[in-house]
Amino acid sequence: MNRRPFVIGVTGGVGSGKSACLAYIEKHYLCLVIYADPEAGKLRKRGEECFEPLLALLGPDVLDDAGEIDSGRMAEKIFADERLLKQVNDILHPAVNARIRALIEAERAAGRYDFVFVEAALLIENGYEELVDELWYIYAEESVRRKRLSASRGYSEEKISQILKGQLSDREFREHCVVVIDNSDDMIETQKRINRILGEHIGGTKRSAD
Hints:
alpha/beta
């Protein structure tokens, strides 16, 4: 008998530890994890649906030696121009949403997993509430996030402040998400919280740790 996977969208501010939480879940549960950024990267490839519109918008100087859109060159252009950033997002976001919707529907039809997780920076802003069964908010105190970003990415306090300013507030995340997981302390405690929550959902099959 096929399973019908429970679909969970995972969001949270930069430095909250979404990737670490999903890495743990992916290892220990019968699940598929879909990451929006790699899907966007695939859609920018030559021959994919976003390549030509992006090339027409950004110009040929964003191409690398292999004739593909270079993510660094693209970032340089769009983050210096808010209008251009919006135009790029208007091309990519609907295509990524459609790709993820198709992946979710394929897994619902195949019935191979207990859970499908979707991770995207703009889950709430892009209307993923309609695509998933439940939204999770991975929370961490701002001081913890700042330490993580400084240690792992070498960001200055000024850069961290600029990034945090452009993200949703804690209140906005909580308004939209059914589950809040506090990832401010050590990962062992976070893993216990994840196990407790997933254990309450449709008999999630926990893989043995190997």
